[in-house]
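Good morning N.,

You mentioned wanting to compare the apo and holo forms, so I went ahead and generated the holo version with adenosine monophosphate. This is what I fed in:
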Amino acid sequence: MQTEVIDIKTEYDRALEKSAEFLRHGEVVGIPTETVYGLAANTFDENAVKKIFLAKGRPADNPLIVHICDISGLSALVKEIPEKVKIMAKHFWPGPLTMIMKKSERISDTVSGGLDTVAVRMPKSEYARAIIKASGVPLAAPSANLSGSPSPTNAKYVFDDMNGRIPLIIDGGSCEIGVESTVISFAEDPPRLLRPGGVTLEEMTELIGEITVDKAVLDRLQEGAKAASPGMKYKHYAPRAEITLIKSDFENFKRLTESENGVTALCFDGEGERLHCPFVEYGDGNDGYSQSARLFDALRELDEMGAEKVYARCPDTSGMGLAVYNRLIRACGFKIRVL
Ligand code: AMP
Ligand code: MG
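and this is what came out, ligand included:
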């Protein structure tokens, strides 16, 4: 299959026409959003949705997020809309927030990974919403990477993973947030944070009060434990390099990188030039948003450099840092050293 890439910034009308045509005909299209690129198909066309799993090599029990362009699209997807969801939607939609509710009978087990719930998001990206609107249906979409690799934050990385697997990628430039959406479940009360992302725990707590933080957010899931968010149990975001997350200050980190051979550092902006080893920087050490915007690109850059042994600086876990930390501990397969 030939994979065409259309730049929506320069060919807006053609990008919308072509993506709508493919989506209506049961095909999968790579689309930009403000979080990461998505691999989209018509939510109500089970065969089309199955093609997403095939293209990614995604396990069938890992559910997809359904993307809508307008709040009126929500009621067809869910059994009922809890009050807290209405409050959250008013505040954070469109935005990097995915909310889980009991699913309606229109949501297939293929979309929900066999669960009785569905995850819904209204993206902030104007491009994403224009594509959803043009297709005329809600779009089921996970991240547009091969299963297990870092999520793609630009069209080139989607092409690297999906060339020959899907017919069309819409290029909307770099993703503003750079990590996947926050996932929070309203199928229970208090609601449960399953994955930290672009809307922070602090912001949500301020709005709706108590939120349970699922254990898988900060830790490895115990052997045999049931995952509330199936995506959290899989090895994720992993570059080929072996990464270890180092909890220490910069001086101890520097000493460690100098005590061994063949080390590549994954460090914060401005730190690299003070080290004596190859490095990739992943944002301002004091700014979680800057780190999230850089993290997945930095992981792919490590592979492009041929890095084998990587030591990574540890982010602060407050605010947006929680999402960065959550991705990093998975990228390093939970190998963490405290100095
Ligand atoms: P991705 O967009 O690739 O990050 O994948 C979607 C994420 O949303 C995965 O981590 C899923 O586990 C999570 N997800 C989607 N639907 C549900 C659901 N009904 N319950 C729990 N987690 C979900
Ligand atoms: Mg993903």
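Residues 62-63, 65, 100, 112, 115, 117-119, 142-143, 180, 183, 194-195, 229-231 surround adenosine monophosphate (ligand 1) (CB under 6 Å).

Happy to go through it together on a call whenever suits you.

Best,
F.
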